[in-house]
Specification:
The protein has 324 residues and is mainly beta. It has a domain at 1-17 and 131-292: YVTN repeat-like/Quinoprotein amine dehydrogenase (Methylamine Dehydrogenase, Chain H, 7 Propeller), CATH 2.130.10.10. It is 2% helix and 47% strand. It is built from 1 helix and 30 strands. It has one helix at residues 230-235, and strands spanning 3-4, 12-15, 18-22, 39-45, 48-53, 56-60, 66-70, 81-87, 90-95, 100-103, 108-112, 121-127, 130-135, 140-143, 148-153, 158-159, 163-169, 172-177, 182-186, 189-193, 204-210, 213-218, 221-226, 243-247, 251-257, 260-265, 269-274, 291-292, 309-310, 316-317.
């Protein structure tokens, strides 16, 4: 475990960036057909929902009907989109290889960082007036609407590469990574948890808090620990803070909805379970009832379900969702 007494606002370095406007291409006599079955994120922006897919950006009505599709012909810098977040009146969109796209409802802009090979923008989260931007190889960046800085964790100012998840629950910010476990920041302190501390894998795909517990989803299953005092517990030297909650191979995401934990697998299956308590035995895999969300499923169909949507070949609201 690693810990520190530094705030996000202090442990950061300025990052040089460039930006450009992306104008639509001439569409005369050209039509572009792209599959949009692999959905990566859904975000509310203005009066619509927007769906980031591997085949461009899709605008949805409140009921989930397709209103518009955006491709490179419309100025979208890249079709392979990874994540989204609404921030400061605009929609920010991560891409596989073209940096960060910004959409105002009509036109697109592009941000990128020439001094570092970020490779992909892998996570976006608006938090307390800032936009946190996770990249695969360029670290965790913070955008204040004017410029970027790099957030580094712990007393050693460790770079957070391959960020897979960023989210806040109460005073705690969670940062999942592809192969370095979980970072948690609370009250100016940092804690770093890996499989040696009880996580089922160092590849984190999502985090939720439910019923006073923090649940970390990895590609091997679900781990749990009491949420309150999680960082302080790590400072006290509890190297087994996390316990097995459910063994689920190929787990690809987790969400909390109406007090229940929703699990997602790579093949598009989802299951809703009550937040496990008494984690000594956890939940066996054969006790979880899985179901398909739609007829067309893809291996990358569900990456993040912090919104009450099932991201599959068919975009669907989960039961009980009410349009806002």
């Amino acid at each position: 475990m690693e810990r520190a007494g530094q705030f996000l606002q202090v442990a950061r370095d300025a990052v040089r960036f460039e930006r450009s406007r992306l104008d639509p291409l001439s569409k005369q006599g050209v039509r572009l057909f792209q599959a949009t079955q692999s959905a990566r994120a859904v975000e509310r922006f203005k009066d619509s929902y927007f769906d980031a897919t591997d085949g461009g950006l899709v605008e949805l009505s409140a009921s989930g009907r397709v209103a518009r599709r955006f491709s490179v012909l419309d100025g979208l810098g890249e079709s392979d989109l990874t994540c989204m977040a609404a921030y400061d009146g605009r929609l920010y969109i991560g891409t596989r290889s073209r940096g960060l796209l910004v959409f105002d409802g009509e036109r697109f802009e592009r941000y990128w960082w020439p001094d570092r090979d970020a490779q992909s923008v892998t996570a976006l989260f608006a938090d307390q007036g800032k936009l946190l931007v996770g990249t695969f190889a360029g670290g965790l960046l913070e955008f204040d609407g004017e410029g970027f800085s790099e957030v580094r964790a712990g007393e050693e100012k460790a770079r957070l590469n391959a960020v897979t998840f960023v989210g806040r629950y109460g005073p705690r910010l969670y940062f999942g990574t592809f192969g370095e476990g979980l970072w948690v920041s609370e009250g100016g302190r940092w804690a770093h948890f890996k499989s040696a501390d009880g996580l089922m894998s160092d590849r984190v795909v999502g985090v939720v808090e439910s019923g006073g517990e923090a649940f970390v989803a990895s590609d091997f299953g679900l781990s749990a620990a009491p949420a309150d005092g999680l960082v302080l517990t790590s400072e006290a030297g509890d190297r087994r803070a996390w316990q097995r909650a459910a063994t689920v191979p190929s787990l690809s995401g987790v969400a909390d909805f109406n007090g229940q934990v929703i699990l997602c697998k790579d093949d598009g299956e989802i299951a809703t379970i009550n937040a496990p308590s008494g984690r000594q035995s956890g939940i066996r895999e054969d006790e979880i009832v899985w179901g398909k969300t739609g007829a067309a499923q893809t291996s990358a169909s569900i990456r993040s379900v912090r919104r009450p949507w099932a991201l599959s070949g068919d975009i669907k609201r989960l039961p009980g969702d009410v349009a806002s």
